[in-house]
């Protein structure tokens, strides 16, 4: 099995990855886990059952790349640039639409303060805690 960035993913391989990724239990595990090697080992095994021979590192790299490209296109669309597109945008939108943005990601992306990431807290309630 060839690993690394040298082997491109075919459309069928990406579709298989998206079908496994779209499963509720997989989405749930990926959302709340930073150390997710075990999840990607499981995903790679599931892909092998579907005839896709990729190791866990390739699956994780493709997952990260698809997610990054999706967010880039999504941001472009919300900024008014509808010319930016990607092949599996609608599939990814269905998978990622309800994924919560973690506090860390929100701080990295928009440099939000702690009070901005907690909309239910008023400044007076914050002082009393």
How would you sum up this structure, described in words?
- By secondary structure, the chain is mainly α.
- It has a domain at 11-97.
- It is built from seven helices and no strands.
- Helix 3 crosses helix 4 and helix 4 packs across helix 5.
- The longest helix is centred in the middle third of the chain and has 23 residues, at 56-78.
- The model is unreliable at 1-5 and 102-129 (pLDDT under 50).
- Residues 7-95 form the Myb/SANT-like DNA-binding domain.
- This is ZSC20 protein.
What oligomerization state is this entry in?
A: single chain
Biggest β-sheet description: none
* Mean of pLDDT: 77
Structural class: mainly alpha
List low-confidence stretches.
Answer: 1-5, 102-129
Q: Short description, anyone?
A:
This protein has 129 residues and is mainly α. It contains 7 helices and no strands.
Keywords:
129 residues; 7 helices; disordered C terminus; mainly alpha; disordered N terminus
Walk me through the topology.
Layout: H1 11-21, H2 24-31, H3 37-49, H4 56-78, H5 89-96, H6 103-110, H7 123-128
Helix pairs in contact: 3-4, 4-5
